[in-house]
Amino acid sequence: xxYGRTMPTGNRACWIHAPAKINLTLEVLGRRPDGYHDIxxxxxxxxxxxxxxxxxxxxxxxxxxxxxxxxxAIGPSGENLVRRAANLVRRRAGVSQPLAVRLxxxxxxxxxxxxxxxxxxxMLVALNRLWNLGWTRETLIGLGQELGxxxxxxxxxxxxxxxxxxxxxxxxxxxxxxxxxxxxVLLVNPGTAVSTAExxxxxxxxxxxxxxxxxxxxxxLLGGNLRAAAGGLFNSLExxxxxKYPAVGRVAQLLKAAGAAGVLLSGSGATVFALVGDVEQGxxxxxxxxxxxxxxxxxxxxxxxxxxxGFLEP
Length: 314
Description:
By secondary structure, this protein is of the alpha+beta class. 30% of the residues lie in helices and 27% in strands. The chain folds into two domains: 13-172, Ribosomal Protein S5, domain 2, CATH 3.30.230.10; 184-299, 2-Layer Sandwich (Alpha-Beta Plaits). It has helices spanning 81-93, 115-130, 137-145, 151-156, 196-201, 213-222, 226-232, 238-244, 246-257, 279-287, and strands spanning 13-31, 37-56, 61-66, 99-105, 160-164, 168-171, 184-189, 234-235, 262-265, 272-275, 294-299, 309-311. The strands form two sheets. Strands 1, 2, 3, 4, 5, 6, 8 and 12 form an eight-stranded mixed sheet that branches. The longest helix is centred in the middle third of the chain and has 16 residues, at 115-130.
């Protein structure tokens, strides 16, 4: 769908937060004819977020600033998902306006927390509002499908059920806003580079599905039962990643030994997360971790990217 809309050069500006995500359940159900895998997952956004600042400009500019993370794995700026998302919006909307973009990275790159996908989702939402395009959430989700499997769920916002390759998105708790508690989460990343494409390419099957995992976690969280939710955590990719990347396995062992209620690999890794009873418990565990590990205490968000935005003065 192409809109014949043109925008005059101006100085409008906005900012938006791009929340990270974890997969409380991730079942890999099999390979599709297109080479991707069918999945079923419960994805939730986190308070840990990148920040994107966008300003209309006379020339294109793209800057990335590290805030406590290593940018070595981010790749050339021309391939960055933020720039790809901006170019996609401009093509579909018929807009040629150059942009000055500043991306503040707080989410570890390639860590299984959806950082690049979150940035792309945030860019779609931000430009739709900055330029008053009037696109619906369904339209934005459709654009997100062109950018990556995690992008549609992060555009949707809030906890979502993902199916297909990630393009089929539905609210996990429709009509239950305010009833699902925010969950403190400890994130730990060993700094190991894990390729999502390689993890899926070498995925051998094994225990690919835990039929009750989604239902257990979904129902437990709706009822506020953190311990029951922790017991249902499941990730089809975890066993293979822990075996191939010993540093990731070491993190999982440290968190389990520390008494965290539930410990799981997020997505394809390398970040491991632990559900904790409260922020104080998370900080206590974090203080005892080796100093070479990146770690943060965060919590789940009810709305994700759709609520984490704001406009700057021109």
